[in-house]
Structure to design on (272 residues):
């Protein structure tokens, strides 16, 4: 009797299309794995909501995602990762991976001076999740955090290289980097899944403000590596990608397509 290789399926959840940056990295690393992504577009942004509300949303959204059997749930939303991981781990028997620890590990690896900057939503920054995760890895590291919530709307607008985005980055970063402590950063964590699309512009703006290079890190690659270790050797077949959104499917396809080639996959509208 021929034994077919076991299919693997990973669920990936975000508040919107930003998590497609994580989906893209996971798909690139594990093209044979089935992926099921949900963007809670009806309730974005999560970053301005209370921790209790984000936890409730994360539980509802993930329940929909894992209606089919999955091997793991990736919380590809820094905001949800900063305040909903314990509740999600209590709820499910399979591994639940957040993006804070992989981002913190990448930052500690990249930094030579131990001065690490973190950009994120209001909720992620208020949670203190990144400084806590970095302190666990390097007790001497100094973390300088800044909430940059407007960047989420600019990313959702597809304005990755737009004068309004450049002006917004300058308005956030110039006063922050005027502080002698923050000025020392040699590594910056993009602590929101929407932010990696701004890497080229961030490099430019940081170069102008600091007159030197700053390493930019995010969680997409590290989480893909963690999943690769978890799932073992590659199988032959091409994985299937299912995309779910809680609102505005056409917009999801249009804007999401800037983050990941959504066009290849059908997007299903779901009600939580
Ligand atoms: N994707 C979310 C994150 O990584 C940010 C967007 C939001 O505020 O919902 O934090």
């Amino acid at each position: 009797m021929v034994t077919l290789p076991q299919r693997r399926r990973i669920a990936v959840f975000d508040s919107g299309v930003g998590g497609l940056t994580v989906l893209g990295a996971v798909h690139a690393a594990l093209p044979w794995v089935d992926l099921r992504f949900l963007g809670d577009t009806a309730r974005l942004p999560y970053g301005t909501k209370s921790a209790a509300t984000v936890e409730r949303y994360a539980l509802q959204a993930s329940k929909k995602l894992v209606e089919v059997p999955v091997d793991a749930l990736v919380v590809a939303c820094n905001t949800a990762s900063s305040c909903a991981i314990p509740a999600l781990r209590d709820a499910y028997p399979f591994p639940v991976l957040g993006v804070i620890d992989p981002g913190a590990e990448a930052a500690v690896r990249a930094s030579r001076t131990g001065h690490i900057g973190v950009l994120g939503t209001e909720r992620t920054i208020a949670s203190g999740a990144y400084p806590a995760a970095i302190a666990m890895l390097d007790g001497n590291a100094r973390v300088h955090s800044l909430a940059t919530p407007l960047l989420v709307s600019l990313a959702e607008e597809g304005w990755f290289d737009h004068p309004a985005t450049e002006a917004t980055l300058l308005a956030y970063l110039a006063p922050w980097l005027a502080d002698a402590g923050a000025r020392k950063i040699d590594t910056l964590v993009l602590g929101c899944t929407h932010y990696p699309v701004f890497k080229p512009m961030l490099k430019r703006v940081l170069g102008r403000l600091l007159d030197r290079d700053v390493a930019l890190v995010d969680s997409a690659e590290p989480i893909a590596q963690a999943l690769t270790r978890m799932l073992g050797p590659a199988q032959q077949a091409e994985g299937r990608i299912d995309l779910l959104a809680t609102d505005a499917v056409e917009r999801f396809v249009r804007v999401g397509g800037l983050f990941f080639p959504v066009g290849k996959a059908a997007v299903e509208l779901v009600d939580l």
Remarks:
- The pocket of D-glutamic acid is lined by residues 14-16, 18, 44-47, 77-79, 121, 124, 152, 192-194 (CB under 6 Å).
- The chain has two domains: 9-99+221-269, 100-219.
- The beta strands are 9-14, 34-39, 72-75, 96-98, 115-120, 142-147, 187-191, 215-217, 241-245, 267-269.
